[in-house]
């Protein structure tokens, strides 16, 4: 059987691509290695979407949320109406029926508890249930008439004269599927990208691990507890990459995430850290998640022959970025099938919709943000955060833009100046 489109990967981007293709009258097959697309996973993931630009790596185009009457903003509650999540620039929307938590404060916290705001009293993002979103999207895919093949691993793709072939392995063994076009939405470590030979000159920029705990019964002291706040702790003695705490509700349900280094050791260390140990004396572990993150340099092309790439296959894009690219990829394919050039338009869109590609200054800030924690001791962080206490700014950016702020700490001052000089000499290419 030959399809119009084979979509490889049943994550948010792949589901949106299959949904859009089916709704536009294409014969679609969706390939997913997991047996249950909507089942909770042990993968660490932040189901977070941004309304405002916070970091140099997010999907930048606006997102709108229309909350239906009766939808409760508490984790685990049963909503009574749909929420519509809209993408005004590409021009599409989809329904979501799960819980939402909106964030108005983003607080950077030092070892001693000094607080500097990344965002204050301003709606900057929202948290949602990944599982519910996948369930809603899968329902739309099935309604659109796409064929869904779960428990099936896509091994490789090969461009042909008339389209593309995809070799897959399922319960009945290996088989080769044919289509006019294919969409690779199988993530950072995409087998499809690799099979097309596109990783040969694509270096791995960083190796890492991520660990997350979902906890109940966390008792946060006054001045920190706010279900509208996202807390980011910088404690270099525990980890140079920081610890994120996201409150899902006012009932003490928390998602605690750590990236890189030895994440589980860092999280356990934070729960015993003298300044914050009392928060966790009655905490109960609900779920533990983990993931390996090998971040490659971004793909220079958004398509290869009859295969087009979506979301993390190009560069880390986040859930909303993956959904937007899944939709846009199908629009590009529709043009290609009509004899028009849809792929160049898709590439142009992708490389303008994500902050990581827009300008060198964002790259500079991103690098400095990551280096900052490695330069500092716990005492350095407390000194800087105490100086900036209560202000709305990003501590790392402030220090690198004004090194005189840490002149009273000579060792750190010299490290900062040296880092600025090295980073400014870097030339980043994509």
List its traits.
21 strands, FAD/NAD(P)-binding domain, 3 domains, globular, 7-stranded mixed sheet, 28% helix, alpha+beta, 10 helices, 28% strand, Alpha-Beta Plaits, 430 residues
What does this entry look like structurally?
The chain is an alpha+beta fold. It folds into three domains: 179 residues, 3-Layer(bba) Sandwich (FAD/NAD(P)-binding domain); 90 residues, Alpha-Beta Plaits (2-Layer Sandwich), CATH 3.30.70; 66 residues, no CATH class. 28% of the residues lie in helices and 28% in strands. It contains ten helices and 21 strands. Strands 1, 2, 11, 12, 13, 14, 20 and 21 form an eight-stranded mixed β-sheet that branches. Strands 9-8-16-17-18-15-19 form a seven-stranded mixed β-sheet, with helices on one face. A three-stranded antiparallel β-sheet has the order 3-10-7. A hairpin with a 5-residue loop joins strand 8 and strand 9. About 3% of the residues have low confidence.
Categorize the overall geometry: globular
**What is the CATH first-level class name of the largest domain?**
Alpha Beta
Q: CATH superfamily of the largest domain, please? A: FAD/NAD(P)-binding domain
User: What structural category arises from helix and sheet content?
Assistant: alpha+beta
Helix content range: 25-40%
β-strand percent reads 25-35%
Low-confidence segments, given as residue ranges, are 71-77, 247-253
* Count of individual domains: 3
> What Rg, in angstroms, do the CA atoms define?
22 Å
Question: Mean pLDDT, rounded to whole units?
Answer: 83
Outline the biggest β-sheet.
8 strands, mixed
Number of E-type strands: 21
The number of helical elements comes to: 10
Cα(first) to Cα(last) distance is 38 Å
Q: Predict the CATH topology of the largest domain.
A: FAD/NAD(P)-binding domain
CATH architecture of the largest domain: 3-Layer(bba) Sandwich
